[in-house]
Structure formats: structure tokens, C-alpha cells
Amino acid sequence: MEFVPKDEKAIAENKPLNAGVFQYEILEAWEKTSQAGNPMFELKVQVTNGNGVSRTLVDYLLPKGIRAEKLLHCCISCGIRDVYDSGSLPASAFVGRRGRLRLGIEKRKGFPDRNVIEDYLAA
Q1: SS3 of 53, please?
Q2: pLDDT digits over 61-95, tens only?
Q3: pLDDT tens per residue, range 7-21
Q4: Is the pTM of this model over 0.85?
Q5: What Å distances lie between residue 57 and 29, 45, 85, CA to CA?
Q6: Cα–Cα distance measured from residue 113 to residue 98, given in angstroms and rounded to the nearest whole number
Q7: Could you tell me the domains of the chain?
Q8: CA dist 44 → 15, 70, 104 (Å)
Q9: Cβ neighbours for 6, distance < 8 A, ≥ 6 positions apart
Q10: Which residue in 62, 76, 77, 90 could disulfide with 120, CB within 3.0 to 4.6 Å?
Q11: Under 8 Å between Cβ of 91 and 41
């Protein structure tokens, strides 16, 4: 088996951040279709703890259902509420946007814990 060896520091960089409020920047965004056939956004989000430690997470936002509130909050946090209110929101509107979010930890049976974006916070 071929692999890239990691030292203790590199392994520690893969551990989840503690739950709390963090700064973020949206690095990339795509319009996609969910497994259920609904339109959604997939965001690549860099979360920073303020001490130089960051993680890159993927988040999914949908305009309907229980996740609709998270999409609205993300748009408010990003400063693009006006674009959201127009009803026509391109994925490119998210790229490069910064703000604050609430980060949680998802505990998964049989798998390591991982960070999840619980919600986006208004400026």
C-alpha cells in the first residue's frame, strides 16, 4: 500500500474544532441536485478559530424544507439578502463571502466525530 506518512501535527489537524462561534470564508459554491431531486447549493467553507487553526468543511443549503432557514441565514450572514429576496440566487454570489457561523460536532456511531455547520450568524 502506498500512502503519505503523517506526523503528530498533521494528524491533529484532522481532529474536529471545538463547538462554538467561528469566522468563515466561502471558498467555492456549486448549484446541484440533492438525492431527493431538489435544487441545492454545495458550499466549500473554510472555518477559522482565530488562532490560525482552520478546517475546510462542505455544507449543503436547500431553498425548501427544514434547511430553508439555514439558506436564509447564510445569505444574511454573507450580506446577500437582497439577492436571496429576488428569488434568483447564483452559486457565484456566495464565493469569497465572509461572516460568522455556529459550529457543532456530529457524533457518529462507528466513525470519528466531525464538525458540522449548525447555522450562519448575522453580522
Answers
A1: coil
A2: 999 988 899 999 999 999 999 999 999 999 999 99
A3: 888 777 778 999 999
A4: yes
A5: 12, 5, 26
A6: 25
A7: 20-121 (2.40.50)
A8: 18, 15, 16
A9: none
A10: 77
A11: yes
